[in-house]
Amino acid sequence: MYRNIPEVMTFKECQQLLRVGKNTLLELLYTRQIDGFRIGNRWRVTKESVVEFMERR
Question: Which of 7, 13, 29, 36 has the fewest CB atoms nearer than 10 Å to its CB?
Answer without folding.
Answer: 7
